[in-house]
Amino acid sequence: VDHVLGIKYLTPQDIQLVHQTADQFKEVINRPIKKVPSLRDITVANLFFENSTRTKLSFELAEKRLSADVINFSAAQSSVKKGETLIDTVNNILAMKVDVVVMRHPNPGAGVFLSNHINARIVNAGDGAHEHPTQALLDSYSIREKLGDISGKKVVIVGDILHSRVALSNIFCLQKLGAEVMVCGPATLIPKHIEKLGVMVELDLRKALQWCDVANMLRVQNERMDISYFPSVREYTQQYGVNMELLQSLDKEITIMHPGPINRGVEITSEVADSDQAIILNQVENGVAVRMAVLYLVASKIKRN
Ligand code: CP
C-alpha cells in the first residue's frame, strides 16, 4: 500500500505483514544497539493538529530507530493559528522535501483528503472519530503476542464506541484477522446500526466480560461529546467501569487492554489497570515496533535515486 489511511483499506495479508515485520523490529529494539539504517535519507514530518502523547512519541521514536530525518509540527504552536489552511500548511512542509507525512487531525477523512492533494506517503495517526489504524495494528499485535492466533478469539470493546476511532479501526482489524467482536456500553454511546458491521451489541457489561477473551476498555471522550448523550460519570462507572471485584467474579481470567489515556477510576480502576491481567504498557511498548513496521513498509515504495 502507498498510504496507511485506515484499516478499512488493508487486506488481512497486509495486516499480517505488518505484524511479521514488527516481530523483527521488536527483536531489533530490544538489542543494546537499537537503531537500524532502513530509513536513512527518508524525511518524515509528524503533523499533529490534535493532542497526543503515545502516538506522537511512539512515531517519533520509531522514525529515529529507523534512522529517518524527523520534523515535528504541532498545530497549537503553528501558523494554523493565523488562519493557514491544511493544504497550504502541508505544501509548505513538503517544499522542504518531505517523503512521509504522519498526521493526526480532528476531521474524519483528513488523511484521505490530503492523499488526493499532495505527493507524499500519508500515515493516519487518528482522524477525528473515524480511524486510528496504527492503534488497531498495535492492539491486534498485542493480542497475538499474549494469546496467539487472533482467529476465533472473542474481543469486546467497551465504552464510548460512538466517538471512538480506536473502536472502528479495531473492529475492522480484528474481523479481518478472524476474531469475533462485540461492543458494550450505554445505548447512547453505541452507533445505531453498528450490527451492520458484523459486531454483536451487549448492554450488560458483566455478560460481555463473561463472553470475551479480551476486553478493550475505551476512554469516554468528553471532548467530542454533547453532554446530553451521556449518563453521569458516576452512573457510567457503576454500570460500565471495570474493577477487580467484577473481574474476579468471572469464571475465567480475561485480558484487559486500554489505548490510553486512562480516566483512572472511571472506565477502569487503578487496581485493574496496574494488574497482571492488563497489557496496557505492553501495547505502548509494541506501538514502537508496529509503527517501525508501518513506516518501513510505506517507505519501501519510495523511489530513492
Ligand atoms: N492511544 C492514543 O492514541 O493515545 P494519544 O492520544 O496519547 O496519542
Number of E strands: 9
Label the overall shape: globular
Broad structural category: alpha/beta
For the CA atoms, what is the radius of gyration?
A: 19 Å
In quaternary terms, these chains amount to single chain
CATH architecture of the largest domain: 3-Layer(aba) Sandwich
Sheet-strand content, in percent, reads 5-15%
- Sequence of secondary-structure elements: HEHEHEHEHEHEEHEHHEHH
Task: Quickly name the level 1 CATH class of the largest domain.
Answer: Alpha Beta
Number of domains: 2
Strands ordered across the widest β-sheet: 7-6-5-8-9
Distance between the termini: 21 Å
Instruction: Write the CATH homologous superfamily of the largest domain.
Output: Aspartate/ornithine carbamoyltransferase
Q: Give the bound compounds.
A: phosphoric acid mono(formamide)ester
